[in-house]
Every structure is written in structure tokens, then in C-alpha cells.
Amino acid sequence: MLAVGAAGTASACNISEFTAAASCTGDKGVITVTDKDSSGTPATVTVFLQSNGSEKEIGSQVVKGTGEGATITFEENWAPNATYRIHVKTDKYNVDEDIKGGVTTPATACATEKPTEKPTPSATPTSPAPSTPAESAKPSASTSTSAAPAPANSASPAGDSNLAETGADSNTGLFAGIAAALVVAGGGVVFALRKRGGAKA
Fold first, then answer.
1. What is the arithmetic mean of pLDDT over 82-93?
2. What mean pLDDT is reported for the chain?
3. How many helices, marked H, and strands, marked E, lie in the chain?
4. In terms of pTM, does the model score above 0.85?
5. How far is CA 201 from CA 16, 40, 192, 193, 194, in A?
6. Exposure of 131 by Cβ count < 10 A (0-12 exposed, 13-18 middle, 19+ buried)?
């Protein structure tokens, strides 16, 4: 009978089986309570913020412990070095007390992780980079317009010295064509005169 009684108390829910901690999930603060109660006794856990001699209830949840530990989470945007009281109550085994020591939050708030998001604006300077290639495309258009003055050189045959040095090739073809036309015309005249001479004879 004594052995059975000892076994019963060993598996009973006890306040020493509850632990609590303050941590961060991303940039949000949380308070977690873990219940390592192999008996699986349901327990109501209530979290209170203590400040300047007063208390503010943060929330209340029911947890059913396991041998490995069952954890419940309270979302709380806690301030650094804040103190929380964690109260546990069960209908069975008459547990109705606080976790010893409660919870004191870390000296650094979770919100300090937000500045790491600021480097994202650095992605915006990369957008001007694509605009510069577009601008480099514009100079190509200007070069094409600069190519347009080339016909001006062809219009500059008025300057004989420039023509003799650079543009002679293009005019040579023109002169050759005119000469050929004159030769053909002269040949035609000679042929016509011969025909007339033959007719008079």
C-alpha cells in the first residue's frame, strides 16, 4: 500500500515541473511555459506583468504536460529587464502557486532586430544601374547622328584640295561615266556622217 501511494505521488503534478522563459520569435517577444508532467494533468497557466508595485494580466492558457514537456506560448512585446509572475493552478493535486523566480526578460528588446531590415533600401540603388545602359544607348543614337554629317563631306567638293585628297574616288566614277557617254555620242556622230558621205557618193 505504501509503495502504491509513493508511486501515485511521484507521478502527481508538481510546481517544480513547470519552467518559464522570455525569448523572441523574429521581432516579436514571447513568454513560454513548459510543463514536464508525466501524469498529463491539465493546468491553467496565467502570466502577469509586474511594474511599479502593480500587476497586469497578460493571458491565461491550459497546458497538459508530458514526460518530454509540453510548451505553451504567450505573445508579449516585453520591455528589457521586465519581470513577470507565472501562476499555475490545477483542479487535481491542489497545485495553486507561482513558478519560483518568475521570469525576467533579457536586457535587449526584440525590436532591435528590425534595423536589419533597413539594408533592403540598398536594393533601390541597383535600379539606377540599368538606367545607365539606357543612357549608353542614347550616345549610340548621337553617334548615328554624327554619322549624318558624312554627306556634308560629299557636299564639300567645292573645296578642290579636300576633294583631291579624299573624295576623288567617288567623282572619278562620275567623270568616267560622262567620258564614256561623250565617246558613244561622238561615235554616233561619226557613223552618221559616214552614212551621209556614202549616200552622196
1. 94
2. 76
3. 5, 8
4. no
5. 150, 146, 15, 12, 11
6. exposed
